[in-house]
Amino acid sequence: MLSSLLFSCSEQVYEYEEMVRQELKATNQTMTEVEIKKWAIYLSKWSEPDFYQKSIEEFKESDSNNFPKKNAILFVGSSSIVYWKTLKADMSPHEVINRGFGGAHITHINNHFNEVVTPYQPKGIVFFCGTNDLAALKSTEEVFNDFLIFFGNVRASLPDTKIFVIGIKPSIARYHLREKQLKINKLTSNLANEEESLVFIDVWNDMILNDGKANPNLFVEDGLHMNENGYLVWKELVKPVLSENF
Question: pTM for this structure?
């Protein structure tokens, strides 16, 4: 196994290995060298801009059969959007489109912007992404800069569209990233205070216990993705904001 992993290495993988070691040290975690190498290889592939091309092709095929109504509200982002199975009912009577895919990074959304955003000409965009970026060892500066690119793309191509950012949520599995997550939320909230077309929806405090840790009653077994209780929290925070604006 180790020999095959070594064969797969590249300069980028070696860089990720060092980043993994630094992250493990900073968070008092341990991995074997084989585990570090496997994680580094996955991180290098996960960061490739076409990593989710299959999902994008599935969206395009679906659109060719039944194109969504324009002027709806587009929900775009990573797996927390993907798994929001009650989204249509939760947001009713608002017309919604779900274009969440995989464990997307913001860069993936930017790369596929003309495939998962602009074709729908939405009147509003609900955006949730960024936590996977941090898990992939990107800095908070890199992640926020990627969001600024997304924001700029919307302003340029859809100037009348309002953006609603669901803040990064706390989770059990990524407790070690909480300071970085909160920093991203703060940067996004500050930007929303300056931009009329941007609204920040903070979900953090509604998803934690008195000790500051994520409420386990809101998550499935993996401690990362939400159960129906978690999505109920999101519904109660997101829908009123949309109703105020549309």
Answer: 0.89
